[in-house]
Each structure stands twice: as C-alpha cells, then as structure tokens.
Write a structure and sequence with these properties.
Layout: E1 14-15, E2 18-27, E3 34-40, E4 45-49, H1 50-54, H2 65-80
Antiparallel strand pairs: 1-2, 2-3, 3-4
C-alpha cells in the first residue's frame, strides 16, 4: 500500500452493489492507479479500477446488466419486425 499513499483506502467501503475487499496487486493504468478486489451483492468477485469505483462508473459485476440487455434486445428486435 506504500505506493498508493496519496490514494484513499477504500477497503470495507460499498459502492452501489460492490463492496471493496482489498487492494489488488495489479496496477490499472499508466498513471499507476490501483485496482481493488470487490465482492458483488450476487456473490461474484471482481477486480475494479479505482476510478470506476469513485466515479460510480461501475455498479456491479455485470449481473445487473444482463437482464436489461436481454430485454432491450427483444424490444428492438420486435420493433424491427413490424
């Protein structure tokens, strides 16, 4: 954690459906921002970049997106068939 002393420690915080478990060893980008190990409410574990968490760009592991995407596809598909 010494490398990221200027960053806030997000361990234990919850962002939408993701709870931060701890710091991941991988660095996410050229600027050296950290990745965080997170647990989704659905039970799946996922690695998320620091920016995606603090700017609310990531809501879940992807479990929230799946049903919406499927519904959206069927809606568009039916409209095109008219």
């Amino acid at each position: 954690m010494a490398r990221f002393q200027h960053m806030k420690n997000l361990k234990g915080r919850k962002f939408n459906h993701l709870k931060v478990i701890g710091l991941n060893a991988k660095v996410s980008d050229k600027k050296g921002r950290p990745n965080w190990d997170c647990a989704c409410d659905c039970g799946k574990k996922v690695v998320v970049s620091h920016g995606m968490l603090i700017y609310d760009a990531k809501f879940s592991c992807g479990c929230l997106r799946r049903p919406i995407g499927k519904k959206r596809f069927h809606t568009v598909h039916h409209e095109e068939g008219k």
